[in-house]
Amino acid sequence: MASLLQVDNLTIRFPRAEPVRNLSFEIAEGETLAIVGESGSGKSLTALALMQLLPRAAQIPNGRIVFGGRDLARLGQREMRHLRGREIAMIFQEPMTSLNPVMTIGRQIAEVLKVHEKLSGRAARDRAIELLKLVRIPAPEKRVDDYPHQLSGGMRQRVMIAIAVACKPKLLIADEPTTALDVTIQAQVLDLLDTLRRELQMAVVLITHDLGVVAQWADKVVVMYAGRKVEQALPDDLFNDPLHPYTRGLLAASPRLKHDFHYRDGALTEIPGSIVSATGETGCPFRPRCNQARSSCGHNVPQLIVPAADRLVACPFTTSIKAVPHAAALSH
Amino acid sequence: MPLLSVTDLKIHYRSRDGLLRAVDGIDLVVERGETVGLVGESGCGKSTLGKTVLRLVDPTAGRIEFKGEDITVLDQRSLRGVRKSIQMIFQDPFASLNPRQTIGEILEAPLIVHRVGDRTGRRQIVADIVAKVGLPAESVSRYPHEFSGGQRQRIGIARALLLNPELIVCDEPVSALDLSIQAQILNLLVEMKKEFGLSYLFISHDLSVVRYFADRVMVMYLGRIVESADNATLWSDPRHPYTRALMEAVPDPARPRQAAPLGGDLPSPSDIPSGCRFHTRCPLATDRCRTQEPEFRQIAPGHQVACHFADHIN
User: Fold this and answer.
1) Same structural domain for residues A113 and A191?
2) What is the ipTM of this complex?
């Protein structure tokens, strides 16, 4: 598969912090890449950087975001506006806050079509109804005149998806798209996203904290911790054989992955402390919480190494598989 | 005598759309030392039910007995004694902590209200509980915003434990926390339960958390309990189609992906479907389900289900 987006050494800097550091990943056409991490991992800022929607205080001092031969990090506002919504689109966790409460959903969908496809009036409305049908909203001819508050949470997220895919983007960034939804509705929305991905041949960057969602929907997973990529793998490899102590800790701490384990059988495995401890850390950001930390972990940020095909991990002590340096792996 | 016994509880509201039946006839028992998990999706009435147990919401009908005493008839004054024994832990600890008070002040307040000890005695109680929940001793002179989400929930737990309660209603206590912190808080709740001999009514939308944490589980849908069983039975032999759908909908890394188990949206509690309230989304619904409400009946000792076809499912 051809590469669609390449993020290369991306750093996001605020006046007093660098919440994302030297992040690299790649996404192929039509692929679903999951970025997992907890709050403070930098996953949502990464998404905003891809859209060039970072807050004003943020800068990208180094790194490239290459999409269709252009570096988005250096693209002008005008050109970016042309891309945004047309070739790259995004949906957010809380559809209610991203929809205009005093505008019918039909008009909100039509707005995108007007800007990018020069459609207006009847044609835009018809296309809006078509899009509502595409995202499986029942009775779209009636719903098109509804206001956001008249819809359920799941339906609102479908409307957001309709707006996002209106111009058949090549890349959809979904930032915690189902976190605010009930589990039976989450299943429906994830189903829909995956169907659209195939029908429209778009790639999806799925940003989530939910390991179950990752396992079932991603082609490739990037695990982030305190602004850095600490592990990358195919989902099966990640769940069968997590390599980074943070990933291992997450899987061990998750009650979902321990089916018959009950509190009467024993305590859940904890990751002690919190992500705040990474602030100001010179070496490995996970060192203060790591159960395998040694003194050398405080010296340098560990390099990503390639412990096996299609895998990367930023910990030199976690693997018994013969490791080769990241740079060597990149050369083939 | 059970610690808590709720009988035919109803909580109805008048709203613009008509009568909203948030809780619509629920029986529930929490035995001493037991953790009862209450699972359901948003709008099913689980949080309203939890608040009603503390009489933070007044029921429309039904009885709530705490150690044999009907607390629905108590006035505010007499409620005070009961409130000492029943405490609550909330989902968002930040919203439930006064931002302008130090943790010491926040934790001392309930002791003052309930006239526990003198100043020195109260400070000692606060210091002890702060240590018990794993917070550093100097926390008492700090403000809520200086703490992370997990630490704030520890403060919430400390406050709930102060007055030596017998029952704690936990309303989504780990839902707002990162996965790496969830395990810390769940472990703390288990430790506290052992140490203080607590009973929990544990409200959650997260089945995996309930599976780990509860002794008995009740599944709620649109104001009613649709299935109740001990933890092991519920997961090995779920009989209500809604319970099964909830379980299937949880994305599980150990299982290949399946189609979404349920279509459609949750109906509104102000427009509850006729017959079985689940029939509009149930894959097994028949004409009978559309007209006749199933009885909540026992199909095995300790296992109750509200489905006409509970005996045939499996």
Assistant:
1) yes
2) 0.86
